[in-house]
Automatic annotation (TrEMBL):
Gene3D superfamilies in the cross-refs: 2.60.120.200
NCBIfam families: PEP_CTERM (TIGR02595)
Signal peptide: 1-20
Alphabetical list of Pfam families matching this protein: Laminin_G_3
Superkingdom as given in the UniProt entry: Bacteria
Keywords from the UniProt entry: Signal
Species this chain originates from: Rubritalea halochordaticola
UniProt name for this protein: PEP-CTERM sorting domain-containing protein
């Protein structure tokens, strides 16, 4: 039992770092008002714009939101800036959400994160679900290279709420799109490169204000991490929601509880 202190320290370190950093999470359970609360605790609230409405129930988990793309530049959810995102670091990202697109092939953006709202070339993280050719595109670090893209036809995206996960690893040059927890498309030879967190000036859900890439549909449980989530976390999100993933402090406590169980068993 003399090794206990070292083991305990190692366990705390391991469990404390075993989960990615949740940057923001929108559960869309508000049901009224115009504030979209960031459930991650990071204070990155958004504003619900005209043309969008709440669903008090019927989302993937609790309520959801209908992002109305009919009103040019006013639909969707946005923040002119989320300045706190400018301090994020890391060359990886995971973006996950549930969506039911109102109509196929309308060339619109479920999310757009850019370093300007006045040029198509300044996108940092964005997707088309779907573009007018029926293809879904995910672009990351587009301001580094327009070849940082993964794409493909996801089939019918307008008949039901489906779960989507987009991942980018700028160090490994790997990108992926998952639908309902199944890998659909990957790009393992992307140029990669750093995500320009410091340059983020524009954050929109359901819109890309520059090109009126308005997205009409139902969305729920939107979240973003600055790491590529592993299979265990992806499965947890898909089955039980973003809120079900333990934060590092919770994981450490679970680790302590587990250690206690092991020690009892050894006695
Ligand atoms: Ca919800």
């Amino acid at each position: 039992m003399k090794i206990l202190p070292t083991s305990l320290f190692s366990l705390l370190v391991l469990t404390g770092s075993s989960h990615a950093a949740l940057l923001l999470h929108y559960a869309f359970d508000e049901g009224s008002g115009t504030t979209v609360t960031d459930s991650s605790g990071n204070g990155r609230d958004l504003t619900l714009n005209g043309g969008s409405t709440w669903n008090a129930t019927g989302g993937a988990f609790g309520g959801s939101v209908n992002l109305g793309g009919a009103l040019a530049r006013t639909g969707g959810v946005s923040a002119s800036t989320i300045s706190s995102l400018n301090t994020v670091t890391g060359n990886q990202v995971t973006i996950a959400f549930w969506a039911n697109v109102n109509s196929e092939s309308v060339g619109s953006n479920p999310f757009t994160i850019s370093n300007s709202n006045n040029s198509v070339g300044t996108r940092i993280l964005q997707a088309h679900l779907e573009w007018s050719d029926g293809t879904t595109y995910f672009d990351a670090a587009w301001d580094v290279s327009s070849a940082n893209r993964v794409s493909g036809d996801l089939g019918d995206v307008s008949s039901d709420l489906n779960h989507y996960i987009f991942t980018y690893d700028g160090d490994a040059g790997q990108m992926a799109i998952y639908k309902n927890n199944v890998l659909q498309f990957s790009n393992n030879s992307a140029p990669g490169g750093a995500i320009n967190w410091a340059g983020i000036q524009n954050f929109e859900l359901g819109a890309f204000s520059f090109n009126n890439g308005l997205w009409a549909g139902e969305m729920d449980d939107f979240a973003m991490w600055n790491e590529v989530l592993d299979e265990q976390d992806r499965t947890q999100i898909f089955n039980s929601g973003v809120a079900s993933i333990p934060e590092p402090s919770g994981a450490a406590l679970l680790g302590l509880a587990g250690l206690g169980f092991i020690l009892r068993r050894r006695r």
